[in-house]
Amino acid sequence: MRRLLLALPFALLPLAIAQAAEVHDHEHEHGSLGAHEHGVGRLNAALDGQTLELELESPAMNLVGFEHVASSDADKAKVAAARAQLEKPLVLFSLPKAANCVVSQQELNSPLFGDKPDTDDHDDDDDHATDGKGSAAEEHHHDHSEIHAHYQFTCAAPGALKTLDLSQVFKTFPATQKIQVQLISPSGQQGVEVTSKAAALNF
């Protein structure tokens, strides 16, 4: 599913890499890798022929307002509502009807959805568990919970995909202040940072 996006993180956005390095320096004492910044989401997009791939990564804080595993009914309702919005990507990403896109693959992952953390994180927790720090490591992971959404669309008329408009993402998840977009399209590659006031970019 990620074939089009494999080269993306290495191809673009030297500015964002520099910014991430600064964030990393600032947050190093907290163990952050720098990519996790509240209010900031990341979107990789690739258009190749009739196939459009979108990969959205966001701190859970941006989408549900917290990053711990939901235990109360109110928190569970927020997680369920966010997941329901993410399960409607044609609406969320405002894909034009003229492009006649249909979702061919869709995958949502997050510790908040009950998914296990990445293997590396899990091994790390196990290592700490032997010296009594397992719970602390687990809490740390939850403090940096992310929500990942991967989509693949088949678009009968890809020529109608003139722009990618993320305004609905900002409206749906108002805690998201900006999204760092890396885009590969027939016209080339670009890295753009979009905000709610300038939420569209050209393919």
TrEMBL record:
Region (Disordered) location: 109-144
Domain of life: Bacteria
Amino acid composition bias (Acidic residues), ranges on this chain: 118-128
Keywords: Signal
The name this protein goes by in its record: Zinc-binding protein
Name of one Pfam family that matches: ZrgA
Coiled-coil ranges from the UniProt annotation: none
Signal peptide: 1-20
Native source organism of the sequence: Pseudomonas frederiksbergensis
